[in-house]
Write a structure and sequence with these properties.
The protein is of the alpha/beta class and 284 residues long. The chain folds into two domains: 2-63; 77-281, Vaccinia Virus protein VP39 (Rossmann fold, 3-Layer(aba) Sandwich). The chain contains eleven helices and nine strands. The strands form two sheets. The protein has a seven-stranded mixed beta sheet with strand order 5-4-3-6-7-9-8, with helices on both faces. Strands 1-2 form a two-stranded antiparallel ribbon. Helix 1 (2-17) runs parallel beside helix 3 (53-62). Bound molecules: S-adenosylmethionine. The site of S-adenosylmethionine (SAM) has 23 residues, from helix 6 and helix 9.
Length: 284
């Protein structure tokens, strides 16, 4: 496999020059995608079978198109999801947020817990819960029609027949479930409108509706999630909300100063940054 190794090395240098953070991995992922094999099987590609479309993929990555748009796939916990233009690429930090919710749902003394994911995007959080929590009934809410289309495809593949998609606004959705939900989770848009992300993959390819929150501080959607969760949850139910690392105190206080909540906690991602707030609706 000397030929492919040499091509990958050349591509790695080009991607590094373009500022791609993980150039070797990305070059190998593109090679694996183009040749239709897992990355660990690249050694089986014969020189004669080298596919020149590798260099088309490398050129797109060099222009800082997200790797996931080039391969059409994003990995989230145990899922391989379809993604592309018009939908937010799920992030590793959200895996921790979803994991916290999954642990609580598994501990709950409820046979078939009812869960709501507000702003589902590709369906990453909702589908992980459906996959990892036996018998969970999951409702995924998404307002954007393009993102809705991606979620629909992923739900068909991974929804376990227990995931329902709703084309609704998270500020006023699912009134039929008022007071009946065991856990509400959300990774809403939260970047303040003036704070433009540095990475071109985010700035130029993630949809603005997924990134930028409304209001001066970008937290209007988080406020809406808090209100919707308070309406939907049964007493003792959990709310789980992701936020930017600098917004931890603001989101903590948003829940702590509302009377309905107890056990409000600010939690960290795997890099130790403040990443999500959890709270329980008061029991009475
Ligand atoms: C940051 S993305 C998160 C997507 C997915 N939950 C994830 O973690 O990968 C936020 C999502 O919320 C959706 N969204 C924004 N405002 C909304 C609203 N008012 N109602 C419902 N969905 C909304 C966006 O279209 C986007 O798909």
């Amino acid at each position: 496999m000397t030929f492919l190794i040499d091509e990958i090395a050349l591509a790695t240098a080009r991607l590094a020059e373009a500022g791609v953070p993980s150039p070797r991995t990305d070059a190998e992922e593109i090679a694996a995608f183009v040749h239709g094999v897992p990355r660990g099987m690249l050694h089986t590609i014969k020189d004669a079978d080298f596919d020149a479309r590798f260099w088309e993929g490398v050129a797109r990555r060099e222009a800082r198109e997200p790797l996931q748009h080039i391969t059409g796939r994003a990995y989230f916990r145990y899922l391989s999801l379809e993604v592309g233009p018009g939908v937010f690429v799920p992030r590793p930090e959200t895996e921790v947020v979803a994991g916290w919710a999954i642990d609580r749902l598994r501990e709950m003394d409820v046979t078939s817990p009812v869960v709501v994911d507000l702003g589902t995007g590709s369906g990453a959080i909702a589908l992980s819960i459906a996959q990892e929590v036996a018998l969970a009934q999951v409702h995924a809410v998404e307002i954007d029609p393009v993102a809705y289309g991606w979620a629909k495809r992923n739900i068909l593949e991974h929804g376990q027949g227990r995931t329902t998609l709703h084309p609704e606004d998270l500020t006023d959705c699912l009134r039929e479930l008022n007071g009946q939900v065991d856990l509400v989770i959300s990774n809403p848009p939260y970047i303040p409108p003036g704070a433009i992300p540095r990475d071109p993959e985010v700035r130029d390819y993630d949809p603005s509706r997924a990134l930028y929150g409304s209001g001066e501080d970008g937290l209007d959607e988080v406020r809406a999630v808090e209100r919707t969760a308070r309406r939907l949850l049964r007493p003792g139910g959990f709310a789980v909300v992701e936020h930017a690392d600098q917004q931890g105190n603001a989101v903590y206080w948003l829940f702590a100063e509302e009377n309905g909540w107890r056990d409000v906690r600010l939690r960290q991602d795997l890099t130790g940054r403040d990443r999500f707030v959890t709270a329980r609706l008061t029991q009475d």
